[in-house]
Structure formats: structure tokens, C-alpha cells
């Protein structure tokens, strides 16, 4: 079954078959348009995969969308959050308030949610500003790109680990840990139907943002984790994919392979870019010279910050592979081809 990407105004809840329903929930002011929330039937009440953005319009769409397919949000048994981003986890707390549902999340993302709740808004802005400065952004760019964060999502009740079965009576929904897009991103394998809820890990036409924060961290490799996670999903076989954006599609393994090739090509281009440079480059300089969906000069401050995070993740993978090195003691941090 396919439901090709259309504007949110043309989206409607629909029967995805096998006791699974798809409910589009809008993301106001975001070009992605909407999140596809899935409701899985069970004798003890439906379990949701993700919940959508925390906004009155989104809440209305979720509540009415469930109603349109014969479900009541007050009867929801639980919400499995594929990852902590606000377009996925934002409404989970509201669902819990209405129904008493549990919220489940992988332990790595749950730790980030707890950290977000503990972090003062001023501390968050200081963190952003210092990160941007160390990446090589100018003072004006730092000021423009430092903004307010969304409200943190609800702290989960249940912690998931790789291989855990979700509390879904009558079905077998297994947690597949797929770090990369976030440290605790999970896909969910509906084993009794050979289907995979892919969250943002594998999408049919676009690729998820893979960033590193702070940009100059040298103790993690999110793109390397993401590429490993693609291999993990490929190993599950030709499953039908139910992603959080765009449309349902066939053969998750084939699409995972395509995305891996895309990032390897991006790494090759980045290596060439560093080789052509006359001097070591900052993360910000690298990002400004990479190819995005529009010219760097046209990217708004928030998207420049995300581009820098993506550039940093690719630089870090090249560093781990021994292709490049960072200049010792440089502030802002700079990278050069490994000699």
C-alpha cells in the first residue's frame, strides 16, 4: 500500500491493514507538513507509534483522526515514541493525561529528555552560542541562530532496550534500536505481520537529519551509528515500511541500502572538498561549502545550524575512518586531510 506524499490538507486517516491505522498529525509551520501517527489495535486498547507535535491544531487532528477510525483517545493503552524529537514525542504527555496511557522510549533518548527538563532556558542558549562559536560561526550568525527550544516532551514511564517486546496484547511488536538520527531512535518490527515502523530512520524519498551536538564532540560518531543501523535494518529483510513521514512503501532493506550509498557519496565529496582547500577549515566553513537543498546564503539561521550539525557528523565519521584529522589546540576547531 502506498500513500504518496501530499499536502496535509489532502491527508486523511486510513486503514493500513492488519489492524493498523494511519493518522496524519500536522506540524504547524514546518515544511515536513505532518507526522504519520500509527494506531495498532489490541484487545486492551490501541497502542500508538509516536504522537505528533504538541500544538492545539495537532491535538485536535490526533483526537479526531482516531475517532474517524473508531478509536477513542481516552482508550489508548500506550504510546511508543520512536525518538524524542517534538514532532514525534510532543503529544505523548497529552495522550497520557487523557487516557492514563504509558509512554515508552529507548533509554538513550529518555536520558536526553530528563536532561532537557533539568536544563534552564538560559543554559540552553549559552550552550548553543558556545557551540556555534567553536564551530566558526561569526558573532552575528551566533546571535541569529541562537533561539528558544521547544517544550521538552514528557518523561517516559517505560524504558525500551534493543530486542524488547512492546506491551501490545495479541501482537508481537519488537524494539529494534537504530541510533543515528538520535541516540535512542528505534524502529518497531511487527513480527506477526512482517512490517516495520521506521520512524525517521528509513524514509521513502528524503533522508533524516544526522547531526552531532555539540558540533566538535570527539567521543561519538552518529553517522557511523546510523550507517550501522541501516545495515541492521537491511538484515531484517524485505519488510513493508511504515515511516513517520511521507508514505508507506515496500522493501525497507532496498531503501536502507540507497540511503547508505547516499551518505557514502556525501563523504567522498566532503573528502574532496577538504583536499581542495588551501588551509584547514572550520565546521562552519565546511558547511557553507557543502551542497544543500538551497544555496547557503538563502538558508535561514536555524537551517544553517542544522547544516553545521550534519557537516560535523560527516567530518567526525571521516575522522574515525582516519581520512582527516582535527588541528590540535585550534579554537574554533579546524579539520584537514590526514597526511
UniProtKB/TrEMBL annotation:
**Pfam families in the cross-refs:** Lactamase_B
Name of the protein? MBL fold metallo-hydrolase
Metallo-beta-lactamase domain span? 34-245
Q: What Gene3D superfamilies does UniProt report for this protein, alphabetically?
A: Ribonuclease Z/Hydroxyacylglutathione hydrolase-like, Winged helix-like DNA-binding domain superfamily/Winged helix DNA-binding domain
- Per its UniProt record, what InterPro entries does this chain match? Metallo-B-lactamas (IPR001279), RibonucZ/Hydroxyglut_hydro (IPR036866), Sec-metab_biosynth-thioest (IPR050662), WH-like_DNA-bd_sf (IPR036388)
